[in-house]
Amino acid sequence: MLNTLNLDGIAGLWLSAEQLGRVRELLSPHYRTLEARLAQKAPDQRHFDETRLWLDKDVFPEVYTYFN
Q1: d(Cα 59, Cα 24) in Å, to the nearest integer?
Q2: H-type alpha helices, 1-68
Q3: Which of 11, 22, 35, 63 has the maximum number of C-beta atoms within 10 A of its C-beta?
Q4: Given CA atoms 16, 18, 21, 26 in this order, what sign does their dihedral have?
Q5: pLDDT tens digits, one per residue of 58-68
Q6: How far apart are CA 12 and CA 34, in angstroms?
Q7: What is the distance between the alpha carbons of residues 37 and 50, in angstroms, rounded to a whole number?
Q8: Phi and psi for 54 in degrees, rounded to 5?
Q9: Is-contact 38 46, C-beta < 8 A?
Q10: Tens digit of pLDDT for each residue in 38-47?
Q11: Is the per-residue pLDDT at 9 higher than 90?
Q12: What is the DSSP letter of 54?
């Protein structure tokens, strides 16, 4: 997988139901934050950076720990 990631810049993988549940649990509050931000502007008024949410590893270490 690392070779594919290095060559293509992306690699797909399968997550178990348990793993997917944990991902959802970790990220759902952040998705809600992003959805609330997006709801404040019409889609054609949004800037690229406003459609993404960057999570600081020092503020949300549990997210980074899980994925690492």
Answers
A1: 18
A2: 2-8, 17-38, 61-67
A3: 63
A4: negative
A5: 999 999 999 89
A6: 24
A7: 8
A8: -95, 125
A9: yes
A10: 999 999 999 9
A11: yes
A12: P
